C-alpha cells in the first residue's frame, strides 16, 4: 500500500503548499512514484503548482519528474450509501485511484477545518504540520498562560489529530508519525526563537510529535511558483551557480527530507 503523507495546519500562510511541493518533488526525483491531492477546493495552490510545472516543462521541452496530481472526482449523490458523506466518498475514490501506482500519496490540506481535512488526517501515515516560528502559530497546537508560559491544554487542531490517532488505532492501523516543521526561522538566535523551541519541546513530549527544521523566508520560493519549479530543479533549467541563499535553501530541503524518516527513502541529493 502507498504511504500517505498529509500536510496539515488549520492556519493559512504557514508554508503548507511550498512544503508539499518540495517533499513531493524530492520523492519523485529520487525515483519514487508520487500521487498528489489538494483538498483546498477553492485555492488549490498545490494543484496549481503542479499544473504550472507541467506547462513549463512542456513549453521548454524538459523532462523532469512530476507528481501524479489528481482532482477529487465528482460523485453522483444517488450512488451514495445511506448516511455516507459525499466528501468522504470523493477522497476515498481519489486515494483508491492513486494507490495502485504510487509509493507515496501526498495530500495537502486547506488552512481551515473541513470535513475533507479531518478525514485526511485519519488516513495519514506521516503528518507534517508546518508552523511559522511565532507564538501566534503556536496557539494552533496549544494554549499558553501568557504570564508563566505554562501549557494550559491542547488546541482544537491538536485534538483533531488526537481523534485521528484514535480512529486509526480502532482500525488496527499503525500510529501517525506527526512532525511539526518550524518554518521561517530567524537566522540569529533571538530570545523569541529560543522560547519557541523550549515550548515546542515541552509540548512534543505531552502530545506526541517530532520537531523538524523547515524553510526560511526566502524570495526564491515565491519566484519558482509560476514555473512550478523547486530548488532541486535549478541546474536542469540552466542555473549553473547557486547563490548562498539558494544553497542554504536547498540544504533546508535536504534536512527536512532526512528528518521525515520516510520508509524506503534514502536522501541522495
From TrEMBL:
Q: Which InterPro entries match?
A: DNA_Partitioning_ATPase (IPR050678), MipZ (IPR015223), P-loop_NTPase (IPR027417)
Record's PANTHER family? COBQ_COBB_MIND_PARA NUCLEOTIDE BINDING DOMAIN-CONTAINING PROTEIN, P-LOOP CONTAINING NUCLEOSIDE TRIPHOSPHATE HYDROLASE
User: What name goes with this protein?
Assistant: Division plane positioning ATPase MipZ
Q: Which species expresses this protein natively?
A: Pseudohalocynthiibacter aestuariivivens
Identify one Pfam family in the record: MipZ
* Highest taxon in the source lineage: Bacteria
Amino acid at each position: 500500500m502507498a504511504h500517505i503523507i498529509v500536510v496539515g495546519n488549520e492556519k493559512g500562510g504557514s508554508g503548507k503548499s511550498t512544503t508539499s511541493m518540495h517533499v513531493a518533488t524530492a520523492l519523485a526525483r529520487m525515483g519514487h512514484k508520487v500521487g498528489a491531492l489538494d483538498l483546498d477546493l477553492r485555492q488549490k495552490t498545490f494543484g496549481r503548482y503542479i499544473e504550472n510545472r507541467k506547462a513549463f516543462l512542456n513549453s521548454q521541452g524538459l523532462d523532469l519528474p512530476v507528481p501524479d496530481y489528481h482532482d477529487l472526482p465528482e460523485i453522483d449523490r444517488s450512488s451514495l450509501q445511506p448516511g455516507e458523506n459525499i466528501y468522504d466518498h470523493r477522497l476515498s475514490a481519489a486515494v483508491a485511484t492513486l494507490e495502485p501506482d504510487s509509493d507515496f500519496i501526498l495530500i495537502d490540506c486547506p488552512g481551515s477545518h473541513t470535513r475533507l481535512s479531518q478525514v485526511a488526517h485519519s488516513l495519514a501515515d506521516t503528518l507534517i504540520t508546518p508552523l511559522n516560528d511565532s507564538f501566534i502559530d503556536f496557539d494552533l497546537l496549544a494554549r499558553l498562560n501568557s504570564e508563566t508560559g505554562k501549557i494550559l491544554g491542547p488546541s482544537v487542531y491538536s485534538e483533531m489529530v488526537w481523534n485521528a490517532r484514535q480512529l486509526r488505532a480502532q482500525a488496527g492501523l499503525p500510529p501517525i508519525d506527526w512532525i511539526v516543521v518550524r518554518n521561517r526561522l530567524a537566522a540569529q538566535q533571538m530570545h523569541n526563537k529560543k522560547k519557541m523551541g523550549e515550548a515546542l519541546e515541552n509540548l512534543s513530549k505531552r502530545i506526541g510529535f517530532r520537531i523538524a527544521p523547515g524553510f526560511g523566508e526566502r524570495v526564491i520560493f515565491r519566484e519558482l511558483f509560476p514555473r512550478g519549479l523547486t530548488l532541486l530543479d535549478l541546474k536542469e533549467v540552466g542555473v549553473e551557480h547557486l547563490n548562498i541563499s539558494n544553497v542554504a535553501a536547498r540544504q533546508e530541503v535536504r534536512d527536512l527530507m532526512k528528518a521525515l524518516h520516510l520508509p524506503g527513502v534514502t536522501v541522495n541529493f
